[in-house]
Structures are given as structure tokens and as C-alpha cells.
Amino acid sequence: MEIILVISSILTAVISTVIGMGGGVLLLSIMTFFLPAQSLIPIHGVVQLISNWTRVYYLKAHVKWDYYKYYIIGLPIGAIGSTLLLKNIFSKQYIYLLLSLIVFYAVFKPKKLPEFKISQKYWLFIGLFTGFLAILVGAVGPMLAVFFIGDDFEKEEIISTKAMMQLTAHLIKIPAFLYLDFDYFSNLFLISIMGIGVIVGTKLGVTLLKSVDKALFKILFKSVLFVAGIRISNKFISFYL
Questions:
Q1: Biggest alpha carbon distance in the chain?
Q2: Which of 5, 34, 156, 197 is buried deepest, with most CB atoms within 10 A?
């Protein structure tokens, strides 16, 4: 099991670094075959924290801090709200429906309709929604990716800024799940070896990113976002099957 998860960590980190997203969702899907449901999001969160931190480290010169500073204000508010909701019976299906609709709009939007272009100060609300989703559904990459599709971001800016935002989202999971009594110490070995895996994968991905054309990057970015949208909508449908 450990070998498969480490290899998966490497490969999914390469995907996330080259394309900007997709690796976290794929890794979470693979982990469902080996780990109990109650351990998935806490362990995945720490591993993805390491993965995103590594991407930020290699691409820190490209982070759009003027967007991030507003995002970070809303993030903890959303996380506190969803943590409290987990203490009660709460259905996630409508969150999956809303998220899938946002993703498909971004991918298939006709040119005449407006893009998800949000001025810097309104990223506070993106942070709030991200914090809310981070605790409930784990991978928040697809939701954040919607707001990076426009032409106002270069590929390195997309990957580094999105990674910085996801890093913070994964960081706030740790106190949230400690509050919910998750034992991180007993899973320390698995977290450590998967963490090493994503560091290796990110380094490989940064090397490959330099050779990826901007137009090709946009196509790959939208393609992975579409696949993520399918997966999210299937989660909504599964509630009724």
C-alpha cells in the first residue's frame, strides 16, 4: 500500500505542477482504495500542504500577492463555519451541485457571456467559500481553478498563486481536524513518505513546466477542469442512486 501511495504522490504532484490542478483530486481518489473514510481528508490535506508549499517555493517570484491578501481574510471564516457544521448532520450534495455548475460554466462559457473575473478585494469571498469547502470535501483545486482561466494570468502565476491559496486552505485543516479528534501522530509515517513523494514530483514538474507552451497549458488546464467537473457532478448524482 505504502509503495503505491508514494508513487501516486510523485505522479500526481507532477500533474499539478505542469497543469496547475488535477493532481490533488486524483490522489484523493487513489487514497480511497487504501484508507478509511475518516482518515482521507486529514492525511490528504497534510500531503497536499507539502505539495503546494513546494510549488510555491520553486515559483515564489510569480505569486500574485495582491490577490492572496484578500483571499486569506475570508478563508478562516469559511473553515470555522464548515468545522462547526461537521458536528451536526449536514448533507453535501448541494455543494457538489453548485461546484459542478461553476466548473462547467467556466469550461463551456460562450464568449459573449462574462468570465469569472473578480477584482482583487472580492477574492475575500473566494477565500470564504474555499475555507468552507476545504473541510467538507477536501480538494478545492477545481473551484479555485475557475477563477484563473482568464488571460490576465500567466501559467507560472496560475500555478504559484493557486498553490499558495491551496497551501493555506490545507493548513487550516490541521487545527480543524485536531478539534474533531483526528490522530495525526499515528499516521506520521505515511504522511512523511507521501510528503517526500510530492516534493520529488513537484521538482520534476517544475522542470517540465518550462517546456510547456502557454496555449497548450490553457487547453490542458481546461481539460483537467472538465474531468474534475464530471467527477464532482457524479458525487451529486450518487446521492440519489
A1: 53
A2: 197
| 1-17 confidence digits (pLDDT tens) | 889 999 999 998 998 88
- CA-angle at 167, arms to 119 and 81, nearest 5°: 75
pTM of the model: 0.76
233-237 long-range contacts (CB < 8 A, ≥24 apart) are: 233/96, 233/97, 233/100, 233/104, 235/92, 235/93, 235/96, 236/93, 236/94, 236/96, 236/97, 236/100
Cα–Cα distances (Å) from 12 to 15, 27, 98, 171, 204, in that order, read 5, 6, 26, 19, 11
Query: What is the SS3 assignment for 239?
Result: coil
Q: What span, in angstroms and rounded, lies between the C-alpha atoms of 191 and 42? A: 10
Other Cβ atoms closer than 10 A to 211: 8
Return the C-alpha torsion angle 138, 87, 84, 177, nearest 10.
-50
Which H/E stretch holds residue 196?
helix 188-209
SS3 151: coil
Q: 188-204 b/e with 16+ CB inside 10 Å = b?
A: eebbeebbebbbbbbbb
C-alpha cell at 83: 468545522
